[in-house]
Amino acid sequence: MSVEINYQIDLNSGKLGIIEFKKLNFSPRRLYWISDLIPGSIRGNHAHKTLRQAMFVIAGSINIKLYEGDKEIFRKLEPSGQVLYIEPGIWREFWTDEPGSVVFVLCDQPFNESDYIRDFHEYIAWFKAKNEC
Ligand code: TYD
Q1: Taking a C-beta distance cutoff of 8 angstroms, is the pair 129, 100 a contact?
Q2: In the chain, is it the N or the C terminus that has fewer CB atoms within a 10 Å radius of its CB?
Q3: Cβ atoms within 10 A of the Cβ of 54, count?
Q4: What per-residue confidence (pLDDT) applies to 60?
C-alpha cells in the first residue's frame, strides 16, 4: 500500500523534495494539504468509493489507521520519502502527536462530496455489498 518515492535530497543548506508524477500509479488532478493539526484530534473518518490518493508528510509525522473492511492496518508517516497509496474503498483515521505536522494528498479526481462515506457502519455495509458482487 505504500511505496518509496525518492523525493528528498539533503543539500548543505536544507532539504529538497520531489515527486515525479510518472512514478505514481495514477495521474493527479488535485492536491490538498493539511496543516495546523491539533495533536490528538482525529481527522479523516471516511472512505472514498472511487477516489485514489497518495499521501505524504513533509513536516512532523502522522499516525494513520486504515481499514479494508474490518481488516485494520496502522502506519506512521514521516518525511522519509514514503508515499502512502490509499486505494478506493479504504476507511482512514489519522492524527498527529507533533505540532507543526504537514500532510500533502494527491488525488486522481476533483472534490466530490458524494464520493465520501462518512459513517463507519455504512462503510462496512458498503464494503460487504461490494465484495459480494
Ligand atoms: P475531509 O476530506 O473530510 O478532511 P480530512 O480527511 O482532512 O479530515 O474534508 C474536510 C472538509 O473540507 C469537508 O467539508 C470537505 C472540504 N473539502 C473541500 O471542499 N475540498 C477538498 O478538496 C477537500 C479535501 C475537502
Answers
A1: no
A2: C
A3: 24
A4: 96
- Nearest alpha carbon, ligand 1 atom 4: 44
The reply to whether ligand 1 has any atom less than 6 angstroms from the CB of 32 is yes
Measured in Å, residue 37 CA sits from the centre of ligand 1 at 14
- What one-character DSSP code corresponds to residue 37? P
What's the pLDDT score for residue 15?
85
Domains, the chain, ordered by start? 26-132 (2.60.120.10)
pLDDT tens digits for 55-69? Answer: 999 999 999 999 999
Predicted structure pTM score: 0.94
DSSP string, 48-102: ESS--EEEEEEES-EEEEEEETTEEEEEEE-SSSEEEEE-TT-EEEEE-SSTT-E
